[in-house]
Amino acid sequence: MKRFFLNLLVITTVFIATVVNISAANLPKDTVLAEFDGGKITVEDLDNRIARISPMYQSRYKTEDAKQNLLKNMCIEELFYQEALAKGLQNDEKIKLRNKYIKISAYSRVFKRNQQKEFKVPEKDLKDYYIKYADSLYAGRTFEESKTQIELKLRPQYKKNLFKNMKNDLYKKFDVKIDTANIKLIDLTDMDKNLEIGNKVIVSGSKDILNMTVSDFVKYFGIIDKQQASLTKTSKDLLNMIDKLTEMKVFYLEAKEKGYDNNEEVKKEYDQAVRKVLLQNIYQQIVLDKIDTTLVALKKFYDENPDKFSSKEYRKIQAFTFDDEKKANKIRKKIIKLAKKGKEEEISKLLKANCLHPENNGIKDYIYKNNIIPGIGKDIVYSETVWKTEPNKVSDVFKNSKDEFVFVRILEDHKAEVPPFEQIKEKVRKTYMRTKSREKFEEVSAELEKKYHLKKYPEKLINKLTAEEYFTKAEEAQKKRRFNDALFYYDKIIKYYPNNTDDYKAMFMKGFIYSEDLHKKDEALEIFREFLEKYPEGELTESAEFMIKELSGESNVLKSIEENKNN
Q1: What is the CATH number of domain 311-414?
Q2: CA-to-CA distance for 37 and 252, rounded, in angstroms?
């Protein structure tokens, strides 16, 4: 669509254009965002949580909506944590044992991380590598120019060797001995049988923490991740697990000798991991364990939710595409006659001789009700036409998202089908648990909010401007061709000022940007249609109707205006 339409819009729509310079003031760190029996969440807590997120994803939490959603999640997490403490889960023997290994792991990981930071590939080895490959990998480059690239290439293997050597040295230092013969006696299929050989030693060392009997291992095996346990199938797997556990312990001991008892990084990592264990266990107890997982419940869920397990209905079509509407209508009449007579070869010849896209005989398969057309992408008009045309019939001519004239022939219509329960029982179980756990989680969360008297203040995170200020920012963004920013400001107006005036203008402008600036016709069509549903009468009604006709290819008014203008 031509930019000339902007003049029509300016005449119709009046916006306040006062320039306002707004800078959002940072909230004090101790500002309370939520409070409950047993604690509170402050701005500092929220900032700290965002800081712990990977830098790659931190930008997602810059918006007010994202921060409010994160605050909501933090509140629920705190309530579950309070419930875990109230139920005394921290005193559970299995959890205490798990926390013991969490502590060992935290010391080991932080110690290794610090060793890794300090490590550098020896200069001599870098030079030797450069000399070896100077004529091939680094031709025309000096050693200094190649040094960083060589370091990156060699570092992973050198780090692996570093920790391997450190491990061997620590095994000697702490006199570690692993009894492979006794390890082979362990029965992985039935852990209870191993109690008969419970006193047999599988690991020994100069420190008590290193000593492990079969009984000790059975207890350890009972607290590890289920997936890790399922992957331990052979004596070799078992030996590898015990060796890694022992390696973790010797690095823990070395870290303690190096003064890591007072290391803040260790403390933070340990506290976070312990908290996570409590949260996992309380979630299991008050959410997952409360769900009925009987076969009767699964079958009932399957019967009541056929749409969740049915195959998707789809259609197979033959598409006839042209650059001229008259030609499209002319060929359409011929195709209808040929189709009635079943003359497929003649249809194919006609398609190849006249259509823009004769490849694959115009066949497009697996067209679902998702507004996506193979080879085209998102196209609402195209999709609607495919699905409103009766099977074995030919559609009317329409304009696709690429401004081509098209009609389609419906070749196959595949209805949705639900497979037998026994055939998809595992899928039903997973879907059931996913659905019911989400429902139960919401239910329990609401109960805990009441129990701990949760009060949230998410509005404190909002830096709300006036409608005029948002309009100004949107207009400035458009002038700088920052259209996504403009859409952001118009969305704020729609959200904060639903007064049938400001939101009315903002919604129209969103449709205009999608159409004229971003050239996304389908998105523009959706917005303008929604606009007319929400505001059937108003000064922009006629303009919205005009835009829909233009975007749908039903009107050539704008083209005529432009042609007259150019003449």
Answers
A1: 3.10.50.40
A2: 37
